[in-house]
Amino acid sequence: MTILDGKAVSEEILEDLRIEITDLLNQGNRVPRLDIIIVGHDYASEKYVSMKEKKGKKLGIKIVVHKFEDDVTEEVLKQLIVKLNDDSLVDGIMVQLPLPKGSKTFNTKEILETIDISKDVDGLTYSSLGSVWVERESIGAATPTGIIRLLEEYDIDIVGKNAVVVGRSKIVGLPLAGMLARRDATVTVAHSKSENLTDICKEADILVVGIGKPEYITTDFVKEGAVVIDIGINRDYDGNLVGDVDFDDVKNLCEYITPVPGGVGPMTIAALFTNLLKIYKRNVRTY
């Protein structure tokens, strides 16, 4: 069993980005800028934004965080996004998800669709997501992009492999299925209404799980020698961070596995800043 060390791989990627950004700044270019919109006080969301702030500043990127209480109106959020769309100094715009739930329900789709595709650093507008399924250059959703990069860094072959993605979210599951299919995997997308989920997962050479259920996936779901990618981030009864996969139960059955934390999470951040640099380089060439 080999642990897919997303933390180590992401640090290598980020160091390469830092060197490239430093070189671009030394050539007299302006500082890259990422604007992040966060609503409410979700612990995980605030932690992610804080991590992005710290990593971004180390890279030489200007990070501007727009914080709102959960009673903010959709109109205020969309007006801000339109303003940022029109600001030539802003390279990337992202909304930290999920938006709060409760007495007020945000229309996440409409808010994300307000982002100009040229600044969609998280790759979550419908135009960006649709591009994943066709042969067109685009900014890929950050988490799926990070997962593909992690597989590549460990020379894990995707071609012809049976890949099962458990979870059909527009943020991870569906775009990742498209990325795997474009790389010639045979892809199955399973979800809460899938019958015989255990049997479906048991056939996977590459099993990717993002369902938000702590340690749900056990050896009953995993084929011997499989590659297991755990997207989940949950807290167990003791308050410890755990994934959707029971790591201790599964680790000796599979060939490769991502830990939680330290697996997919750092790769998402690395992919986000890789996306931002792509946008930034396109923008500075226009001046």
Characterize the structure shown.
The chain has helices at 6-26, 43-59, 74-85, 108-113, 126-131, 142-153, 173-182, 197-202, 247-250, 264-284; strands spanning 2-3, 33-39, 62-68, 92-95, 162-166, 186-190, 206-209, 227-230, 234-235, 241-242, 256-257. It folds into two domains: 29-116, 3-Layer(aba) Sandwich (Rossmann fold), CATH 3.40.50; 142-264, NAD(P)-binding Rossmann-like Domain (Rossmann fold), CATH 3.40.50.720. The protein is α/β, with parallel strands linked by helices. Helix 1 (6-26) packs parallel to helix 10 (264-284) and helix 6 packs across helix 7. It is built from ten helices and eleven strands. Strands 1-11-8-7-5-6 form a six-stranded parallel sheet. Strands 3-2-4 form a three-stranded parallel sheet, with helices on both faces. The radius of gyration is 19 Å and the shape is globular.
Topology:
Elements: E1 2-3, H1 6-26, E2 33-39, H2 43-59, E3 62-68, H3 74-85, E4 92-95, H4 108-113, H5 126-131, H6 142-153, E5 162-166, H7 173-182, E6 186-190, H8 197-202, E7 206-209, E8 227-230, E9 234-235, E10 241-242, H9 247-250, E11 256-257, H10 264-284
Parallel strand pairs: 1-11, 2-3, 2-4, 5-6, 5-7, 7-8, 8-11
Antiparallel strand pairs: 9-10
Helix pairs in contact: 1-10, 6-7, 6-10
